Amino acid sequence: MRHRVHTFKIGRTSAHRKAMLANMISSLIENGSIRTTMVKAKEARRFADRMVTLGKKGTLHHRRQAISFLRDKDAVKKLFDEIAPTFAERNGGYTRIMLLGTRQGDGAEMCILQFTNNDEVKKKTVSAAKSSKTEDMPVNAEVENTEAEKSPASAE
Question: What's the CA gap between 31 and 128, in Å, rounded?
Fold first, then answer.
C-alpha cells in the first residue's frame, strides 16, 4: 500500500528521476529560473526549498549534504554564499511557479520555476549597471559634442 507516499514518478526510474531533479535544481541555482513542465516543477520545488534550507543553516555538514545531492560544487557555493542569505528572514516558500500555458507539440502544461527573490536580485544588478552607464554617458556626450562642432566647420 502507498499510504501517505507522495512522489511524482514522472515516468522515470528512481535513479534517472534523482539525477534529473539534481540537474534541474543546479540550473535553477545558476540561472535563477528554469522553464519546465508543471509536474517536474512541482517535484523540483520540494527539493529546491530543501536546498535553500540547507544553505541557510550554513554548516559544513549541511554543505556536504547539498554537494551529495547536487554534485555541483559551483552551484553549492552560489547557493550558500549568494542565494541563502537573501532568504534569512523567510521561513519556507522560496520558489514560485508561474504558468505559461500548454506546449505546442504534446499539450503539456508548461511553467517557469524561479526563486521568489529573483526580482530583488535583478533590480540590484540592473540599478548597479544603470548607475555605471550614467557615469559613462556624460563622457560620451562630450565626445559627440566635440565631433558635432568639428563636422559643421569642416563642411563650410
Answer: 19
CATH 3.90.1030.10 given to domain 14-119: yes
Per-residue burial over 81-97, b = 16 or more CB atoms within 10 Å of its CB, e = otherwise: eebbebbeeeeeebbee
From the CB of residue 20, how many other CB atoms can be counted at a distance below 10 Å?
16
Say if CB 33 and CB 100 are below 8 A apart.
no
- Across 18-156, where does the E strand assignment appear? 33-37, 95-102, 109-115
The residue to which cell 543546479 is assigned = 26
Radius of gyration of the CA atoms of the chain, in A:
23
Whether 17 has a pLDDT exceeding 80, the answer reads yes
Q: How far apart are CA 80 and CA 63, in angstroms?
A: 8
Q: pLDDT tens-digit profile of 29-42?
A: 999 999 999 999 99
- Nearest one of 123, 122, 101 to 110, comparing CA atoms: 101
Segment 132-151, tens digit of pLDDT: 665 555 555 555 555 555 65
- What pLDDT band is residue 22 in, cutting at 50, 70 and 90? very high
Global confidence as pTM: 0.74
How far apart (Å, rounded) are the C-alpha atoms in residues 55 and 58?
5
User: Residue ranges of the domains in the chain?
Assistant: 14-119
